[in-house]
Amino acid sequence: MDADITLTVDGAQQRLTVDTRTTLLDALRERIGNTSPKKGCDHGQCGACTVLLDGDRALSCLALAVAHDGAEITTADGLAADGELHPVQQAFLERDAFQCGYCTPGQVCSAVGVLDEVRRGWPSHASQDLTADPELSHDEVAERMSGNLCRCGAYANIVPAVRQAGGVQA
Amino acid sequence: MTELLEPRAIGRDTVRRDGEAKVRGTATYAIETPVQHPAYVHPVQATVPLGRITGIDTSAAEAIEGVVAVLTHENAERLASTDDREFAVLQSDEVAFRGQVVAVVVAETSELARQGADAVEVTYAEQPHDSALRVDHPDLYKPEKINPSFETDTAEGDVAAAMATAHVTVEETYSTAMYHNNPLEMHATTALWDPSAEVPLTLWDSTQGVHPDRAAVCEVFGLEQEQVRVICPFVGGGFGSKGTPHAHVFLATMAARAVPGRPVKLGLTRQQMFSLVGYRTPTIQRMQLAADRTGRLQAIAIDVVEQTSRIKEFAEQTGVPTRMMYASPNRRTTHRLAALDVPVPSWMRAPGECPGMFGPEVAMDELAERLGIDPVELRIRNEPERDPETGKPWSSRNLVQCLREGAERFGWADRPPAGHREGAWLVGTGVASSVYPTMRQATSTARIRYEDGRYVAEIGAADLGTGAWTVLPQIAADALDVDEGDVEVRIGDTRYPIASVAGGSSGTNTWGSALTVAAREFRTKFGRSPADGDEVSGDVDQASKDDAHAAYAFGAQFVEVRVNVDTGELRVPRLYGVFGAGRIINPRTARSQLLGGMTMGLSMALHENSVWDTRLGQVANHDLAEYHVTVNADVGDMQAHWLDEHDPYVNVMGSKGIGEIGITGTAAAVVNAVHRATGIRIRDLPVTLDKVLTALP
Predict the structure, then answer these.
(1) Cβ of A101 and B638 within 8 Å?
(2) Domains of chain A, with CATH numbers?
(3) Beta strands in B49-140 (DSSP E)
(4) How far is A154 from chain B (nearest CA, A)?
(5) A120 φ, ψ to 5°?
(6) Predicted ipTM?
(7) What residues in A contact B23, CB-CB < 8 Å?
(8) Each residue's pLDDT expressed in tens, for chain A with a length of 170 residues
């Protein structure tokens, strides 16, 4: 069964017809041709497909496209839509926070989400005080970024990159 | 001896050339290749571990609107070569392991292809299978050679006699688990068969070597090299699993040939990868060490038992590092295999050295404990002056310096006593050595052309995150004596000259050597003021290859482990590595590679374990939710350092290769630290909390 939906992807409105089984990730990659979000497991286990969905980080492989008619989606490519890298992307580049690059767009979107969540005062498992404003400590960032697997093992560079982008002097 | 290149670009901390594309997600991986109107391919896998297909009913699949073709052994084309039984897809009714592909469905969309695959009805005559590796398996055999071409067994002196008379001995059995490479980019191939085109077959494949990939496809399909082009600018990790093609490459090609003129895309699922793209065999390692009162080894022996598949042999060279690591007059290494009804094992990061630096490096720690000698000091006392196996001098060997510098950086001298407790946590420290051979492949050619005021170098090399896009221009710039910015290097396409596979930590050594030869010939022929279009090719320099020295990179890894006394939870707050790996071409990408290897080593120590179900003949935990790998929160203060090492024998760059050494020894260092913290000696990986908890006081 097919359905007609509208998505705003990286600022551009897209009308498309999708199989109702089509995930948001496959709609982006196979229908719209935006392959910035990656498929690493298709089961919400690796984080490579992370995008910003209506402003929050989300696993696009676990979302059905038809359920997100009208949604606004930002991919890692869209974070640099004006040609300037986002501060998170710039920090990833400077800190060499990736190798093969396949998990990277998901890491970048996730990191943008993390910085926003911390700004909003959301606690994590690593927060010592659940009511205090969280700080961008190593442990906080590592915990919050742990839904994004990196098989090349760039974690030791990802945490400093995210902290740098969040304004921590390190 | 080779005169090393004068380093100007070499050694610089250059940012990755492909970095911006990667942080934006615009670097294009195989399945993402933009092609017109692609069809999608989904495999159907055998649901029995051994047997014969008695019937395939494809009618329900074919009745689905949008299904373009269903290929089975009954209607698939006959291949020109079926010698390699992993590659000989859809050629017979035999099922050799659960998960083997028995059909593929080609459809208009990925959803329809998967629906079609579900609709294919296959019936089997199942046969009793044997997929359980045991140290006393009755069919253990001695392979003719071990990967890639080492002697299977070696022996010198009399190990048994030394064991009988030595002051202290260690005789223990260690095991490593089955591991799956699991690169984040799932294996995938986009294929186009256009019989009317000059080059009829184009494959956009995720591979560690476009030329070896092409050679295999040509052989299997009976095609000439000129008829096939393989393209792969980016690889989303491989760690060996993309070092050789696997069944899906041939299935994609076959599917493309079934729909001429139309591109097809075949992307394996994560679950399918657990039976179709190789893995590291589990290993059982019986170790024997004998030492005198001062800790000097009198004997060292390793007897390895591991598995291979019945349809294709892969013999992991687990005992090889024991042949050269430490001095000892009496030595033995053996390898025995069980050929089982299992998927085909293959390369995974540091085949041989990775599992083979587990048992021996834990055994050395056990020996140190029994002797009452510091484990750093024990290793230093067994430093061999020459390669114990060949008698050759070392090209350079700085293991002792790595141990000393690592100990200094880590604060080894002031480490807490055994069983040290801080609150609910037991704290322990451990050390192990690392090693990886320095290799250069025999075949690679680089072409250099002067074009629009720049030097363009072309070679069919691969960058699987290793940094080839970035470091090859640094090498070429120094070889041409120009600025790095004046050089462009193009890789990942069989239209460029032949390159060896990115494996064995040999890529930079091999391709860099070819680049320097081409650069020298370019200058000889055209001088310093070339004309536009001037072009020359150069082959990897065999003349300067030094066979008189034993060449290896060495390292030492230091670990702090914390074990929770109530839960057995294990944390690794510190992991430091110091390496002697020759000249470092790019400190930024090199550090990432070393840290990446150590991270994967930590993963092997604490998490990774493909749990084999011997009744069903399959991996039970075949996805990333249950096959655990190290995540961000598992990594604490992790540091990689290196010595300023000058090796004039390895190659003109002075580089030894750094892709694999980082994973060797890590798991042993963790196990040794767990012992220091808890007194519990874990000899079977991974170190999971259940193993610790049941043994805690």
Answers:
(1) no
(2) 2-77 (3.10.20.30), 87-165 (1.10.150.120)
(3) 51-57, 67-72, 94-95, 101-107, 121-126
(4) 6
(5) -85, 0
(6) 0.98
(7) 76, 80, 85, 89, 92-93, 98, 101, 104-105, 108
(8) 999 999 999 999 999 999 999 999 999 999 999 999 999 999 999 999 999 999 999 999 999 999 999 999 999 999 998 889 999 999 999 999 999 999 999 999 999 999 999 999 999 999 999 999 999 999 999 999 999 999 999 999 999 999 999 999 76
